[in-house]
Specification:
heterodimer, A: about 600 residues, mainly alpha, Cytochrome C Oxidase, Chain A, two-stranded antiparallel ribbon, 17 helices, 2 strands, about 65% helix, about 0% strand, globular, B: about 350 residues, alpha+beta, Immunoglobulin-like, 5-stranded mixed sheet, 7 helices, about 45% helix
Chain lengths: ~600, ~350
């Protein structure tokens, strides 16, 4: 699209923007805070909803870790909170599995998908590309409210009599399809499917909007190769979501049919509850293919925003350009493309054709190459920098460490000949919690601390930020590092109690240790949550427009930007976003809005 | 009420902590200008990161020392030996990468902390470096893939013709094991014939091959040492998984689909008790695919014995369909293993 068009558009928007600026003092409470169409408010809505879900999801992990760490003890407080499900202070096995399932679903979808890309895509895309708002603010609002309603259904499912879904976050049929197979496969599973279907709608509305905004609404001079890496990462995140969520949705539709209308897509030759079911000819493996066709890209939907955020923050705080900007983009392309063709590595031991398995081994280990490129580029970015250890920088460094640790164990699991032993053991639990759990969270934390001044016009308390960082990274390694050993010993995941197993009971004391650390880390996160909410009202006020000395466009907006972001014209962009060099006036960065000096070459 | 008080208490503590932290931040900003403050923070954080790295490395060694004896004994199957070797190679490769990248990460962070006097080095790209760290990982991955695929082909290859054939079927929540009997043929079965009282696997009574088939419901599987065994794996209800940690193998049991897995056990149970110095040692079959509330208790066991011991044991077993009541009596029928465990 021509710059001319953008310029025209920005002018016409501009009037609208001015208009808004006068009007928005009188904006109604509902249209400002609830049914808001302002990308900044929607970002905050996603973030705060995400934080609430994260606390719920984390609290669930505390409950089931109490069971895992202390299988022969009782905790009366659990009975108080969970009632019948923890009679006598001991978790019921059915509810243990429900908690594990809900923990996974909530964290993967509600927190690390909606909470992470919902927040940062909404916040950063218009800001960093120089747009007044999203391509369709109304769709954007719908995206949040579909997510909200999805959350309501999921929350309600926690209180139904048969309990929420309990077949694992992957909800494999026939376990999830047959009410006879488990209590959680009753009403709880129906609510889970409704909730997740709404979630897919929300995700598609958001994703399409992000893509069209990035492609069509960049300000004058903002070519694709002048986009900050955050935007590139969020762009590919949206592409992944738009192409893979519909496949998950189709998988859910077939599951709904099998559950309610007597079809046999996933069911065949089953004898359960004392009788043989009439279904023949279906295949449970079909569901796994459909699920993991989203499920694997989902991992990258979670990881890519963190990568983008870390790139941006490492560069800003090293006062040095990101190393290998184009290599970073190409590796994102590589990861995105490969993400679609590795799904079956979750299924090596399902009895899938071994030949097909070997193709997936090859493709899976290929994805290590772009990942390695990214890590080396980050390391070179901080090399010979002038590093400021701000709180976001600490989290970005932690992100790199965790991404390396968790990524390397993926090399074990992607190789089918090793996966055949490690599959579904604690090795897997350790691997994905480090790489897409904690590491993605570190990307998210880095982003929250970094853009908090832009969101609320105040800073979060940095002392508590540092405390939060060290407690979390030390805790995360203490929890997940020893879990690898349990996995190497073959200890299966999703067990309620190991004490009857000769092969796994030697880890009893380790399990108790891990559970204690989990509780400490949980409270460390409460420090963050409190810091977040208290700083909205009490945080140190931002007094300069560009507190981090950053080059990107969001820091050219007013400290508390109104609807429409910029008060005057949208600024024009002249250079790439990583010109961290001497500008000749004693500053160590050149904003994107500064025209090239005579004789200066653009990157 | 006590829950409410606990929550209120937590909020109160957090409020106090937040106030102290805020006050200390304001006090610091009044004492020093922002530049000095930033530099002293950089100093402190750089040292803390180094401390974290050093403690982390010590922690890794410490963790390994206390946990290394809790891992599995050497592989009890020939196939598992290849796994053990490959695992070692991958650990060494990834261990080196882990160590180098972490040394660089923390060393760079420490060395290039902002001191106020330095400025950064403008270094935006270098194609030679990019090429280097694209090709080297690609080559290393190629080697790992090569080893992996060779082992994968071996482990998924056709079982030798002389392998013992044994069927294992999962149900909520235990394992049913069927031996082909004298004719060495597993008879046909159909899930519609299943009856928990007298036909747990739904054997087809019209198939003569079924007449001598032996079914064990105790979840105990007998194998012959150094003789390949091919498992025919099935499920009656939901997906289960036959996990054999000591043999480094697992395979899903999927309703409606028959999966297989073969291996050669090489250490008898008796020998393993001596090797591990554990008189209670037992090969266990774990269910490794979430299958419902009793998933964690879906335990089977394997006894690896010599051919003579196996023959003797087999001879004492009666065919399932034609029970001459005498020999069947010793068998323990485990109908609900959840109960068995919670009663313990």
């Amino acid at each position: 699209m021509s710059n001319e068009a953008i310029l025209h558009e920005s002018h016409s928007h501009d009037h609208a923007g001015d208009h808004h600026a006068h009007e928005h003092h009188e904006q109604h409470f509902f249209s400002k805070y609830i049914f808001s169409q302002d990308h900044k408010m929607i970002a905050k809505q996603f973030l705060i909803t995400g934080i609430i879900w994260a606390v719920i999801g984390a609290l669930m992990s505390v409950f089931f870790r109490l069971q895992l760490g202390f299988p022969d003890k009782t905790f009366p407080i659990m009975e108080k909170l969970l009632g019948e499900w923890a009679k006598g202070g001991k978790l019921n096995p059915e509810f243990y599995y429900a908690l594990v399932t809900m923990h996974g679903t909530i964290l993967v979808f509600f927190v690390l998908t909606a909470g992470l890309s919902g927040t940062f895509a909404n916040l950063l895309i218009p800001f960093q590309i120089g747009a007044r708002d999203m391509a369709s603010p109304f769709m954007n609002m719908l995206s949040y409210w579909f997510f909200f309603v999805a959350g309501v259904f999921m929350f309600v499912s926690l209180f139904v009599q048969t309990g929420p879904a309990s077949g694992g976050w992957t909800t494999y049929p026939p376990l999830s399809a047959l009410k006879e197979a488990s209590m959680g496969s009753g009403l709880g599973m129906d609510l889970w499917l409704i909730s997740m279907s709404l979630f897919v709608v929300s995700s598609l509305l958001g994703g399409l909007n992000y893509i069209s905004t990035i492609l069509n609404m960049r300000t004058k001079g903002m070519t694709m190769t002048r986009l900050p890496l955050t935007i590139w990462a969020l762009f590919f995140t949206a592409v992944l979501g738009v192409l893979s969520f519909p496949v998950l949705f189709s998988g859910f539709v077939l599951l709904i049919f099998d559950r309610n209308f007597g079809t046999s897509f996933y069911l065949s030759e089953i004898f359960i509850g004392g009788k043989a079911l009439p279904n023949v000819g279906g295949s449970p493996i079909l569901y796994q293919h459909l699920f993991w066709f989203l499920g694997h890209p989902e991992v990258y939907i979670i990881m890519l925003p963190g990568m983008g955020i870390a790139s941006e923050i490492l560069s800003t705080n090293s006062r040095k350009p990101i190393f290998g900007y184009f290599a970073m983009i190409i590796s994102l392309v590589g990861i995105t493309v490969l993400a679609f063709v590795v799904w079956a590595h979750h299924m090596f031991v399902t009895g899938m054709s071994p030949f097909l398995g070997s193709i997936f081994v090859l493709l899976t280990l290929l994805i290590a190459v772009p990942s390695a490129v990214k890590v080396f580029n980050w390391l070179t970015t901080i090399w010979r920098g002038n590093i400021r250890f701000t709180v976001p920088m600490m989290f970005a460094l932690g992100f790199v460490s965790l991404f390396i640790s968790g990524g390397l164990t993926g090399i074990f699991l992607g190789n089918s000949a090793l996966d055949i032993h490690l599959h579904d053991t604690y090795f897997v639990v350790a691997h994905f919690h480090i790489v897409m759990g904690v590491s993605a969270f570190f990307g998210m934390f880095a982003g929250i601390y970094h853009w908090y001044p832009k969101m609320f016009g105040r800073f979060m308390n940095s002392r508590l930020g540092y405390l939060h960082f060290f407690l979390t990274i030390i805790g995360a390694y203490l929890i997940f590092w020893p879990m690898h050993y349990e996995g190497i010993a073959g200890m299966p995941r999703r067990y309620y109690d190991y004490s009857a197993w000769e092969s796994f009971k030697q880890f009893t004391s380790l399990n108790s240790f891990i559970s204690v650390v989990v509780i400490v880390v949980f409270f460390a996160q409460l420090i963050f949550v409190f810091n977040f909410f208290a700083s909205i009202f009490k945080g140190r006020k931002v007094t300069t427009q560009n507190p981090w000395g950053s080059t990107t466009l969001e820091w050219t907006t007013p400290i508390r930007p109104g609807h429409g972001n910029w008060e005057g014209d949208i600024p024009e962009v002249y250079r790439w976003p990583y010109d961290y060099k001497d500008d000749g006036n004693g500053n160590d960065f050149v904003p994107q809005t500064t025209p090239l000096k005579p004789g200066e070459e653009s990157h | 009420m006590s829950v409410f008080i606990t929550v209120a208490l937590i909020v109160l503590v957090l409020m106090i902590v937040y106030q102290i932290a805020q006050a200390s931040e304001y006090a610091a900003s009044m004492r020093n200008d922002s530049k000095t403050r930033e530099q002293s923070t950089n100093q402190i954080m750089a040292w803390l990161l180094v401390g974290f790295f050093v403690m982390g490395m010590i922690g890794i060694v410490y963790c390994h020392n206390i946990l290394k004896d809790k891992l599995l004994p050497v592989s009890a199957s020939l196939q598992g030996e290849a796994y053990d070797f490959m695992f070692k190679v991958t650990i060494i490769v990834t261990g080196i990468v882990f160590f180098i990248t972490h040394v660089l990460l923390f060393w760079f962070a420490f060395k290039y902390k902002g001191t106020g006097s330095k400025s950064s080095f403008f270094f935006a790209h270098n194609n030679k470096l990019e090429l280097l760290w694209t090709t080297v990982p690609a080559i290393v991955m190629a080697i790992l893939v090569a080893i992996g695929l060779r082992n994968w082909m071996n482990v998924t290859s056709e079982a030798p013709a002389d392998a013992n054939v044994i069927e294992i079927v999962g149900k909520q929540f235990n394992w049913i094991i069927r031996y082909p009997g004298k004719d060495n043929v597993l008879g046909k079965r159909n899930y519609k014939n299943i009856n928990d009282a007298n036909n747990v696997l739904g054997l087809d009574k019209n198939d003569p091959a079924n007449a001598d088939d032996i079914i064990s419901q105790s979840g105990e599987m007998h194998l012959v040492v150094n003789k390949p065994v091919k498992l025919i794996i099935g499920s009656r209800d939901v997906i289960h998984d036959v996990g054999l940690p000591h043999f480094r193998l697992k395979m899903d049991a999927v309703p409606g689909i028959t999966t297989t897995m073969w291996f050669t056990p090489k250490v008898t149970s008796a020998q393993m008790k001596l090797n591990t110095n554990n008189p209670n040692f037992v090969y266990e079959i774990s269910c490794d695919q979430m299958c419902g509330k009793g998933h964690y208790s879906m335990r089977g066991t394997i006894i690896v014995e010599t051919q003579e011991e196996y023959d003797k044991w087999l001879a004492s077993q009666a065919a399932y369909l034609a029970p001459p009541a005498a020999a069947k009596s010793t068998e323990v029928v485990k109908t609900d293993s959840t109960k068995a465990i919670t009663m313990k």
